[in-house]
Amino acid sequence: MQQIDDAVILQKFADERTRDQAFSLLINKYQQKIYWHVRRLVINHDDADDLVQDAFIKVWKNLATFRNDSQLYTWIYRIATNECLTFLNKKKKQNNIPLDEVAYDLVDSLKEGSYFNGNQAELKLQQALLTLPEKQRLVFNMKYFDDLKYEEISQILGTSIGGLKASFHHAVKKIENFLLSID
């Protein structure tokens, strides 16, 4: 199926008669990418499903006011990322535990999750990612898994490109050290 251009989706969304169709096109185009982005951050499939749904509800409510000063998918990624960060911070506060321990909970849920079908190498990589500080994990996921350019990540996270490059470099080194230490 050919991808519909974002400008066409926005044009259809602006027309009350084709708004539902436009939103269906938008979901078909971005839902899977957003799901995997969210899933890598929160690990748990059910949490990821809920957060993706919440993100798209926000997209629906705010798409009419989208100003076109960024690309549509970076705007959607930003909404989804903010949903994830809010969720993880609530989880941290709710359990009154440091973020490091939330990472341990996520590792446990990764191992026990019925939706995880990865091999041992993927499990080790995910464990390594969960040891990273939040920002480094976000940057690594967006760069490595989502193949976003630094300019796009900068728009999503509101951070300088130089800072993103440094975060990615530090993340790679920490992952490398983690993987070497467990062999």
UniProtKB/TrEMBL annotation:
Residues 26-93 form the RNA polymerase sigma-70 region domain. InterPro entries: RNA_pol_sigma-70-like (IPR039425), RNA_pol_sigma-70_dom (IPR014284), RNA_pol_sigma70_ECF_CS (IPR000838), RNA_pol_sigma70_r2 (IPR007627), RNA_pol_sigma70_r4_t2 (IPR013249), RNA_pol_sigma_r2 (IPR013325), RNA_pol_sigma_r3/r4-like (IPR013324), WH-like_DNA-bd_sf (IPR036388). One of its GO terms (biological process) is DNA-templated transcription initiation. The keyword Transcription regulation applies. GO terms for molecular function: DNA binding; sigma factor activity. It holds the Pfam family Sigma70_r2. It comes from the Bacteria. CDD domains: Sigma70_r4 (cd06171). Residues 124-175 form the RNA polymerase sigma factor 70 region 4 type domain. Belongs to the sigma-70 factor family. ECF subfamily. This is RNA polymerase sigma factor. It comes from Arcticibacter svalbardensis MN12-7.
